[in-house]
Amino acid sequence: MTESLVGVVTTRHAYVLFVLLSAIGLYMMIANEHLVKKIIGLNMFQTGVFLFFITSAYRIGGAAPIVEAGNGPYVSPLPHVIVLTAIVVGVSLTAVGLALSIRLYSEYGTLRADALREVIGDE
Amino acid sequence: MSDAVLPLLIALPLLAATVPLLAGLWVDTAGWPVAMGTSLLVSALAGWLTWTVSPWSTTGSQRLVHDLAGYPAPYGIELVGDGLSAILALLISVVAVAVLIYGRTTGPQSNAFYSGYLLLTGGLLGMALTGDLFNLFVFLEIVGLVSYALIASNDDGRAAYGALKYLFLGTTGASLYLIGVGYAFVATGTLNMGDMATELAALGYSDPLVQAAFGFILVGFMLKIAIFPLHTWQPDAYTYAPDTVSAYISALVSTTAAYALIRIAYGVFTVDFFAANPLLTDAVLLVASISIVVGSLLALLQTGIKRVFAYSSVAQFGMILAAIGLNSETALFGAVIHLVGHGLMKATLFMGAGVLASAYDATTIADYAGLAKREPITSGMMAITGLALVGIPPSVGTLGKWFIALGAIEEGSWGVAAVIFVSTLLTLTYIGRLIEALYFTQPADDMTDRPTTSPDTDDTADAVADDGAAADSDSVADDGSMVADGGATSPVATERVVVVVVLAVSTVALFAAADPLSALLDPVFGRFFA
Fold first, then answer.
1. Which of A10, B31, B34, B429 has the fewest beta carbons closer than 10 A?
2. What is the pTM of this model?
3. ipTM greater than 0.90, yes or no?
């Protein structure tokens, strides 16, 4: 039992990290009242997902996927492409989120979600 | 060669989206003509696509497939045009044109707005046509990003708050979808929908990785579609967005997400997956039923008219989710009809609400008192569309609900059938309130016929209205209508009313469309339920 647990931690630590990062990010996005920190939480959540994809591409002894004769095995390049695209999407989301936060700040003078809810009268 | 229409449908609006911004350097009013021209072209292409994949065309191919950049399917990204995606593409392009006509004189007029509008159209079409799971994520995020920006384009600070709330929840939904896709990718090693379906079948549907993948994808889409209890972003977003944007987003964004869920649930995971996981099916039905009932009840409790329609969407999409979970061909047919019908009906209702809001500043049900006399055409069309939403024949709302309920009874899910019946009664109640206010309630102020001076208006309004807020809005309403009345015979631009009329009539006329829709969908459902 202990051995298998150790085995999981040592060989699957990247997956544990993925779950931890995502969960912490998600919790931060929900529980923190500060809008910018919510956005940071969202970024962390997404970073966790990226980590999962990158981990899935890894194989022991794999070379970079530049195919030459008899040079395999290679790591899978597809998850890397996916993560690159997802990073771009994440950056644009962060930009839009921060732009909206700036607008809310100039309008209401606060970046706290609870204060905003009070001003706006959101249920 | 004819499959070139698929990339064109997506690339055209996306490329055209840059034009308003570029041309805006020299011409201030470049946005609308560019957006209109592109949307008309896209409509023509979508119409042609629908014709090509329909059983009546002579080409004989009922499924167009295009490999992007010439890379063959499992390696490259595939675009697929079949009956189902063609219906969606046609709905998207038609609503895009209608909303543009409606929004010519109202709403945000900047070139940036029209760029966003075209981006949104392109993203939605991409979601409708792609045959690749990760490509779907990218289009999902394009749609999301542009929706947040468009919602925030209202002058109101609350719009920015609603948009930010939508951003948090929408992004979480998309990320959950991405995790689901990641699990499925790890399990099968492919991202192509058709290829993954075969791989999943070979792997077995009771694999925990596959179950987890579907769970994440389902929850992600439930956030995007706004199913109770994950709907909290939606009422704020719809309420505070400009009227033009509310109409467009409420008609298409959740609709396309629900379409994508149908495509993945039946095209990738297939009916065998549902059969192998009855617990999952039950969970979907339970959540959907709760969403139907709670959404209807919340709609009943609202006073703001846009909020009523927003919560009503929660209930209607609950119905579509129930149809997805029912695992029956009849119910799924009903779901597709209801997707189209709900899109058209919500667009009409939000546009009608926009007309009444800009003409009389009427934003709550109480403000609607007696408006039918002042604005008979718009009020009449809203009443017709509202009744269509209830499901009173002949209307497209009847068809959708009928087939979903029929599917539920065929599958023996009497609970779902009962929930649909109850929700119809609840829908009748909140639409009934609307119609009662429009037609059978005396206006709070008796200024219907004669234009008066402001002090007089204030007196009457104060005398009748209970609280100060209502009095304020009443006097503002009269001021607005008086100013507008001074210029033209009708306080709103004619084309806005015309669009509302055309869409309302279409929701009734589509009652006759069951047979052609069924002919279009038969080959698709034949694959789903093979």
1. A10
2. 0.88
3. yes
